[in-house]
Amino acid sequence: MYYRIIMRRDVYQAIADPTRRQIIAVLAGKSLTLNNVADSFGISRQAVSKHIKILTECGLVAVTDKGRERHCQATLQPLHEVAEWINHYRQFYEAQLDSLENYLATLQTKNKKHGKRKK
Amino acid sequence: MANEKNSATADRELLVTRVLNAPRTLVWEVWTNPDHIKNWWGPNGFTNTIYSMDFRPGGKWDYVMHGPDGTDYKNKSTFIEIVKPEKIVMVHDSGPKFTATIRFEEQGPGKTFISWHMLFDTAEEFIRTVKTFKADEGLQQNIVKLDQYLQNLKQ
Fold it and tell me: How many Å from the N-terminal Cα to the C-terminal Cα in chain A?
């Protein structure tokens, strides 16, 4: 048996960079042209292009050419994957609270029994 | 809690809450007494060895969590702020760096609202942690599966 290793960008690379997170946030509100994005961030068109390219490869942004302009639109579906990771991590702490809850219940049952014996 | 949960930190924090069926004095006691905390810390099935728990601001807490599959998780934390019986703030020093704020609020007779807030230093660290966490768990599940498989082979 052998495995085929597929090199691909994942959504974490997209959101690991603060500028890219901001770009997603802005595009989630409204679609913008590449030039609009560059203007609103005060960074070069070249730098924006690089970020948008990565975001596109991660599936978080879709670019459509309309005439001479490139329109960028956020496609937020892949972020659900992140929400799932976080939710899974949350389960660990929920489970810890379950454990605390059980322990408190056991302690209080013991105390009640102890109290009855005293009577 | 409004001052702890805001949009600026939304991408690097986690909040879990629960209403516990116990008076606040008891909840505080089982949280702050090493003889109690070793019995419940971690999800069900975990046990703990506490090497030291210096429960005062600046005090260190050094312990190991033993997972149900025998994996040990070493932990080192420092208590930052203690307001008896309302609030504990501590910093996790080992592994992912985060600040945990645990609040205890009386809620009716014999009930305590506990909120557990984790704030990671950076969003990158948070993402890395949640990602690694699942990866680790997947690995553990694989080990369990392998173990079951070997058990079946023996029979």
Answer: 71
DSSP string for residues in B84-143: TTTEEEEEE-SSS-EEEEEEEEE-STT-EEEEEEEEES-HHHHHHHHHHHHHHHHHHHHH
DSSP secondary structure, A32-90, as one string: EEHHHHHHHHTS-HHHHHHHHHHHHHTTSEEEEEETTEEEEEE--TTHHHHHHHHHHHH
What are residue A5's phi and psi, to 5 degrees?
Answer: -90, 120
Strands B87-92, A61-66: pairing kind: unpaired
Does the structure's ipTM exceed the value 0.90?
Answer: no
DSSP category for residue B3: T
- Give per-residue pLDDT as tens, A56-106: 988 889 999 988 889 999 888 888 777 888 888 888 899 899 999 999 999
Phi and psi of B46, rounded to 5°? -85, 145
Q: Which of B14, B18, B46 sits opposite A89 (nearest CB)?
A: B14
Interface test with A, best of B18, B98, B137 (most A CBs within 10 A): B18
